[in-house]
Amino acid sequence: GIGADNDLYINQAIVFIEDAIQYRSINHRVDSKSLWLYRWYYSRTCQWILSLTITTILALAFIEKPSSLTITSDIRYRLPAWNPPCGLTESVELLCFFVFMVDVSVKSYLIGWEEFWKNKWLIAYILTLIVSLTDWIVSLSLFCTEDVRIRRILRPFFLLQNSSMMKKTLKSINSTLPEMASVVLLLAVHLSLFTMFAMLLFARTKDGQQDKEWVGYFRNLPDSLTSLLVLLTTANNPDVMIPAYSKNRAYSIFFILFTVLGNLFLMNLLTAIIYNQFRGYLLKSVQSSLFRRRLGIRAAFEVLSCLKETPTYAQQSAVSIGALLRVLQKVEMDSRCKQAIMRSLKMCSCDQLSAAQFQKLFEELDKEAIKQHPPSPEYQSHFMRKMQFAFGHAYFGYLGNVVALANIVSICVVLVMDADKQPSERDDFFLGAINCFFILYYLLEMLLKILAMGLRRYLSYPSNRFDGLLTVILLVLEIATFAVYGFPHPGWRPEFMGLLSLWDMVRLVNMLIVFRFLRIIPNMKFMALVVTTLLDLVKNLRAFAGILVVVFYAFAITGIMLFKGAIVPMGNIRFFLLLLFQTCFYIKNNVVLSYKKKSDFMALLGHFEAVVIDCLRYLLSVNLICRWAKVYFVAWWLISSVIWVNLFVALLLENFIHKWDRRCHREPLSDIEYQRTVELMFRDVLEEPTEEELMEKLHQHPHLQLCR
Amino acid sequence: GIGADNDLYINQAIVFIEDAIQYRSINHRVDSKSLWLYRWYYSRTCQWILSLTITTILALAFIEKPSSLTITSDIRYRLPAWNPPCGLTESVELLCFFVFMVDVSVKSYLIGWEEFWKNKWLIAYILTLIVSLTDWIVSLSLFCTEDVRIRRILRPFFLLQNSSMMKKTLKSINSTLPEMASVVLLLAVHLSLFTMFAMLLFARTKDGQQDKEWVGYFRNLPDSLTSLLVLLTTANNPDVMIPAYSKNRAYSIFFILFTVLGNLFLMNLLTAIIYNQFRGYLLKSVQSSLFRRRLGIRAAFEVLSCLKETPTYAQQSAVSIGALLRVLQKVEMDSRCKQAIMRSLKMCSCDQLSAAQFQKLFEELDKEAIKQHPPSPEYQSHFMRKMQFAFGHAYFGYLGNVVALANIVSICVVLVMDADKQPSERDDFFLGAINCFFILYYLLEMLLKILAMGLRRYLSYPSNRFDGLLTVILLVLEIATFAVYGFPHPGWRPEFMGLLSLWDMVRLVNMLIVFRFLRIIPNMKFMALVVTTLLDLVKNLRAFAGILVVVFYAFAITGIMLFKGAIVPMGNIRFFLLLLFQTCFYIKNNVVLSYKKKSDFMALLGHFEAVVIDCLRYLLSVNLICRWAKVYFVAWWLISSVIWVNLFVALLLENFIHKWDRRCHREPLSDIEYQRTVELMFRDVLEEPTEEELMEKLHQHPHLQLCR
């Protein structure tokens, strides 16, 4: 009947508006039951369960065999790691697979059968699940004794397919691959030509004294390639040329030429290419998000205009305000936006909305939330008002910064003076006394600021929250110190008491004071710009970081499987850390490859001490110099250092240059917090989609039948 | 008289047009005598003498005391370096100073007294000369025994002031300094905060076993700062954290945080800032060159229009074609351009030229020299024409590439097979035979190509010249080999004869063959793009490289003076090389700083062997850990690696992105050689100066009185 139809239209409008808010695609089924399922699937609980499942299945790697999850890493002290019995992690895995199966079924149902076949991600999802389940069954039937567990390598796929940002980024990276491949090819040509030159230059000679270079680095083709590859990572850079250089100075030309061409030109060319490809990436991504939002709103308008209660005299389609109000009440959205839209609706004199008016109403969604700080309290007394002026003034904040700086300097002075003293000679009185004074000042500053601004206004500034929190922690620590060790006095050197020694307490307080000093950042213009750029970058980098995590996980699991069968089992945590360190200290990445002989390795082991010793003993036992380990580590170096670092630089350039240009155009309002999102950054250059584009897209909708 | 006036005008026009051609400023004296002096000063001979003088005075450093200019660097074999007697280098220096004095006088006279006081470069030039001469007198009166020779540090200034490009670039770098300083300040804050954290974290404990980290890296403030600074250059990266990590895994968080923030964020931020500042640099520089050219042409027009022979009936100023022809005959310019302008002048039907027509005539100067390859010979015989078609075809070139590749592969295979053989076991027959075959093919290819294209057309392609030259050299080498050692046969292992052993000959031939393989580059589109970008970059980088040389020279001389008084004298060449290596292998720059104890140093010395041994023994003797040496090397690291490398990356990005955009817009014509200059790269975006701007500038000319 008409009532049921109207209810359906209302529900469709609700879902479309929610899609628009979340930048989701509207290409899903739109019948009543599907809409209910759709809202249930995208409800917070469901999405939370899905995220939890993904986290769980990824975290399983840390406790699975071969586990090395222990508190200390020193093999002399640590207990053997706990290995779960067969079937425990496997049952958790099965549970996760069950959730994924529900997820993929709901998703497939919602987009419809025809769309399903076009969606490669969904098909890959199903295939991954089938392979994982098969592997799981094999694993259980062998009582967990199998060597190869493919499903572990496939796990990060679940993370990948759940994030639309990551999928988009992956597509974007994919389109850059041809150019990247060209440069990598160029690098390979560079490397191989120079390898041939090197082998011809540093050939074996009859005089055994003269061919140190040949013995050390260019004994055969793989050795020569490795030497030059490691030179490209600059890990072995002066050493590799010393024997040749000592024979003849001119040999250095070869190495300088290789380094300049490879490191300075080709490596930076990679940066240039990646930057060039990614210049438009952020803009394009924001543009498509905008299109999705406008499309969702337009779709909501179209279905609402089909409502039977709309009078038919109007030539153009229109939506009654009553219907929209009904929809708005049920839509889940930010309450500030909802109120703003309701307010504008009530101010509207007409009772019908055209498409343009409808779209305009929802532009509230795009607007930046301008944070209004609560007002300062208004004091009656003249004295209080003077106090308020004095302590609410910016100069009082600057004074606080100066005092914080003085505190830092005093700590620094004490550190320098105490540097060479024995712990037993140390007198904690001076530091205790000055810290006590400074912390009292911080407390006073906080209280006076609260007095001047009122508690709510004080807390509405992030810098004050940071400041206040640290001051309270410092105060608590100081009171605890005095309670346990008494007040400081000359020769104040009490013995260990309670949880922490006095010395540890003082160190902790000092570290917090150093940390608190970061409050000066927003006061320095350039620093604030840099910090906000970095924060933005972190936001925009989430997708990239996610892809890095996916690759990292797959790589680490593959590594653990590849390098199995050693004397000392290679723990999973250990291996994760090994790769992680290689990623962080990206330039020296290939350092393990530059150790070639067993004696060198032993020296390295002596260096690394008990820590990563089993890592490296392990790698030694599988014969690191074997080709596959080499290929494995070189691949990881290429992905983590070369490509990822360049992607990072490209994004940083993009973000920073936009920020910088904006900064020059208009001065930031000091009272508005830095809440710039990538959408707002590109506000000026975004193009609004035209009416025709929107309607064409709507007519292509696989499930929605427009009433006209 | 009128004749004298007319002659003056003609001479002025000649000089202005020459100024326009060379992009020189026209703000110089314009009376007859000055014009003659001006043309003499800018004549090739004079400029050549000036360049020679600058080169000489800079090169003096290599033979001056303390000289270490010897052929071999090995102290066991080399003879003591020749030290010139007192007064020899000094008299050469005096000669150079004399040339510079003439140079500065002429320059000052030509720009005029009032302009002279505004020109800071000229005043600095005179001051430098005065200081240098004073220092020279002091030096001679002390019979060359003085320790400090300021004039050596000042020498690179003469290079700097002679190049307008370098002065412009320096100005541009200067304007970027505030932003760079901000980031360097940020780096300093980052470093000092983390140093304080580290000193608090890794403090001395009562248990001597536990504080390996403190003993090794964080003993006091300078040690801690150095440890973290070296970590920023990644030279000591896994080592520095191992002791702490072995105590507790969580300590690695500190080091990872430091590296990620410092290396990944702040260092790359520097790239972003420098790139952002230099984005417009090339365009601006080209724009100002264009303005100078248009201004010179316009000035020539204005003075020619003052000629008395010009009829007065014209309202607008105009120039007679006869006068222009007279001027053109005396102007020194590219003959191709001159002919083109003459040709268009003769085709012109009118006998007067307006300003716009005059300007248009000289646009020939901006045009790219489109290189017309000479035509192929036209053969009468049908057979010859078929041959010509076959061997002039691109496929024949591709076949040549395939053969070159086959040659490379065969050399590679032989190298791999012979890798572990003793020199006495080696049989050179196989390689000799195949190389003989391949070289015959190369000869044939060259001859056939010459047959098809004709010698002149063949030589007009750079790739053919490269190819042909190498083929001829290979042929000569091969014939020489056969003449000395006879034809190859199995077991062909003759003893050493003549200048080079057979083995050396074969190696040389192989290296040339590998080098010849580079001819494939223009055939691969992406490679050609990359190579042309790199070549362009080298052109545009000349000014930057010049500034680097200036800084390098001043730094090296300062270093030699600072680190004087060692047991082993620190040779100048040795020091130059030490800094040069640090510049080339820029990342490990600070490696010398990471060696702290004497025992470590001895290990390093063992590493570097006899080569740089006296360098390092020297540095050890002055106690490298002394503050000033540290400051010196850190400053050099900042300038050479951080700032210069980033400038390089910025220019590379700028160049590459322009190139890439152009490539997308239009396909390059394959027959035109790559002769793109930076002027042409920006052709589409350059703005023509307006008539008003030009005339305003002309009226501001300090010496030229326009006749209207």
Oligomerization state: homodimer
Q: What's the average pLDDT of chain A?
A: 77
CATH topology group of the domain at 382-523 in chain A = Four Helix Bundle (Hemerythrin (Met), subunit A)
Q: Largest interface, by Cβ-Cβ below 8 angstroms: which chains and how many residues each?
A: A-B, 94 and 91 residues
**Largest sheet: spatial strand order of chain A:** 1-2
Instruction: Give me the number of helical elements of chain A.
Output: 30
Number of E-type strands of chain A: 2
Distance between the termini of chain A: 19 Å
Low-pLDDT runs of 5+ residues of chain A are 565-570, 583-625, 666-676
Described by strand count, sense and barrel closure, the largest sheet of chain A is: 2 strands, antiparallel
The level 1 CATH classification of the domain at 382-523 in chain A is Mainly Alpha
CATH arch. level architecture of the domain at 382-523 in chain A: Up-down Bundle
Helix content of chain A: 55-70%
Strand content of chain A: under 5%
Structural class assignment of chain A: mainly alpha
Cα radius of gyration of chain A in angstroms:
32 Å
The 3D shape of chain A can be described as globular
